[in-house]
Amino acid sequence: MCLPQAGGWPPIFMKLLKTTPRNIKRAAALIKAGGIVAFPTETVYGLGADGFNPAACARIFEIKRRPRFDPLILHAASLKQAARLFRRVPAPALRLMKSFWPGPLTLVLPKSAAVPDIVTSGLATVAVRVPANPAALALIKAAGRPIAAPSANRFGRLSPTSAAHVKKQLGAGPDMILDGGKTRIGVESTIITFVKGRPVLLRPGGLPLEEIEKISGVAARAAPSGQRAPAAPGRLKKHYSPKARLRLIAPGQSVKPGSSAAYLAFTKKPAGSFLAVRVLSARGDLREAAANLFSALHRLENSGAKIIYAEKVPPHGLGRAIMDRLRRAAA
Ligand code: TXA
Ligand code: MG
Question: The whole model's pTM is what?
């Protein structure tokens, strides 16, 4: 069952391989040879290639069926390696890097000449982060170059928070899937850019906006007045979608149960009988809810339900990222 492969790697690489030092070494060798490796980060699994190898990066777009206008994130192992990918690092960006890296924060700044155009889809800016997952960091270090990696799902579909999720959607597309278990944070990184030195939010994610604002000392919500808001080209209205239709509802709102309906609750199981039910966090903890979000949606999708009712969550902290994903899944 060998699908298109650049390197003709032996079939052993099709299996899920635990993130042992030996397998990480093999993965790094694959990356250096132009191969594609799916690997765990603290947010979601990434589909990785040598960020300086345009042909390898092109394969990421093919495997994901991702449009070429949607740029990739580069993953670095250190602040120093990351900084070399930017033309220069302004002071407010450096403050955020020092406070939150390694971690679920991606920064978008003008790119250095080292970054190939295919990574940025021709934009003059590049998105970079240092992930806080020991296996991811070890892989980038061993590869000796930044790793370009979008989330390891098919374009527009549910993001992967386990190696099994990657396999379900991408099958034998990647040359190797590193299995580091369930990801800790469960939603993608928060993406920030800067307009006139002020932070601007491009995507809510695993780092709560409130924490960024504490360090920046200013609101990071939208572009300052009079500025056209910059955008992340891949932030389409419809995204993160399960196969079933998803409908957003108020917690406890009465909906029609049934054998083709599934239910995603925030804290409490609904009354009535549904094909499948998942509770994000019985104690109402938004971090726990975010960590469970995509695995719950994968489960509900696998149930074969035609419709998923999903309860809204409070839109602060990690709730902002959860609501963003649910709104787009429902679009
Ligand atoms: O947590 C994460 O960020 C995960 C893990 C694997 O690191 N990665 C991830 O990548 O979510 P992806 O490709 O699924 O989402 C990256 C988003 C896309 O919406 C893309 O349009 C945006 O980042 N992006 C990339 N480069 C950009 C740039 N130069 N300017 C604006 N947006 C950019
Ligand atoms: Mg994605």
Answer: 0.94
